[in-house]
Amino acid sequence: MNTVSITPTEVVEYLFCPRFIYFMECLKIPQHEDLRYKVLMGREVHERKTRVNREYVRKKIGVVDKEISVYLSSSKYKIRGIVDEVLSLADGTMAPLEYKFAEYRPYVFKTHRTQLSLEALLIQENYGRSVEKGFLVYVRSKNFLREVVFKPSDFDNALRVVEEILKIVQDGYYPKKARSRAKCADCCYKNICV
């Protein structure tokens, strides 16, 4: 039996609007994200950090080692993906670090917290070490570094979203669309979504 696994990117798309998953995975209609400016800039930032930032160690947050662009998977949690940086910290724990082509805000977006939570679960399972926090780098705010401390509810919420996505993908379930009409204006599926 072929086991389905979900990526943190799919989770972010689901949180934007659950119907994204239906159109992409069930109907196989590509979203052509490669034509969107923020997606292109985000990819460029990731590529540049992979080349330029290879030897930089973040002493400020107690990093003793890091791995860049690490692919991890978990059959237990049914998730897989590439973590921008997997950090080993001085206290013996580990942490994911994600670059965001975004400006810093005094709060953490649900999409960012959920993505980091899933990456934390991937690190815990693959490395067998505790993950208590993650980090976000806001590129458009001069690489502002934001620490995100995890609560048990973060992991529960992230795994609940994975289960909801699996229901759509495996059962062909047509979900409700996003509550915010503003999201519809920027959606690549707005012409076919009823």
Could you characterize the architecture of this molecule?
- This protein is α+β, with helices and mostly antiparallel strands and 194 residues long.
- It has a domain at 35-161: Lambda Exonuclease, Chain A.
- The chain is built from 6 helices and 5 strands, in the order H-H-H-E-E-E-H-E-E-H-H.
- Helix 1 packs antiparallel against helix 4 (110-127) and helix 2 (19-26) crosses helix 5 (152-171).
- The longest helix is centred in the last third of the chain and has 20 residues, at 152-171.
- The chain is globular, with a radius of gyration of 17 Å.
- The model has no long low-confidence stretch (mean pLDDT 86).
Brief digest:
This protein has 194 residues and is α+β, with helices and mostly antiparallel strands.
